[in-house]
Every structure is written in structure tokens, then in C-alpha cells.
Amino acid sequence: ELSSLDFLARLRLGKILDKEEKWVKFTEILLSETGQASQVVECIRVCSISEAGGGSGSPTSFLLDQLEQWPQIKISTMIRVLNEMQLQEAVDLLQH
């Protein structure tokens, strides 16, 4: 289901979640039941710095790529977490 997110939606979500590292809290809540949130956050931090040559890569883009490998993560799950974080702009983006 996450693979259905188009490139523009991914970029817009990145602009929202990359700001003030909101993607970290998003990941922690989203993956809280798996026990792997901290590992994923660390992996994303390393990947977004090394891939982008100095940290200009979007951690959210890397995160979304990783989340595609988790079949239990659905857009509806992401919307629930974004609602919990009170990120209405991101919720609206995923609902349309």
C-alpha cells in the first residue's frame, strides 16, 4: 500500500516530517510495537547523511523506502500516528 504513494506526496510528507526531526517521533510511535524503532531511526540517520554527502538527504524518504518492506504498515496506520502527533497537514496529504 505504501508503494502507491507518488513521488510528489513523498516529497511533501518529507517537508513536514523532516522539519524539527518529526520523522523520529513518527517512527518511534509507528514502530513501537515492533521493538525496532531505535534501530530504524539509527539506520535512517546514517543513510540520510552518507547518501546525501553531508546530510542533505530526506530522512523521511529513506524511512518510507524502509517501511515498504513492512507489510503491516499501511497508509491508514500512518494516518493514525500523524493524527496522534497533530500533524493535520500530513494527514490531509495522505487522505487525498
Distance between the amino and carboxyl termini? 14 Å
Helix content: 55-70%
Quote the average pLDDT. Answer: 90
- Which radius of gyration do the C-alpha atoms yield? 12 Å
| Sheet having the most strands | none
Q: How much strand?
A: under 5%
Rough shape? globular
Number of helices: 6
* Uncertain spans: none
Please state the structural category. Answer: mainly alpha
Number of domains: 1
The topology string of helices and strands comes to HHHHHH
Strand tally is 0
Describe the structure.
By secondary structure, this protein is an all-alpha fold. The protein has one domain (2-95). Helix content is 67%, strand content 0%. It comes from Romanomermis culicivorax (Nematode worm).
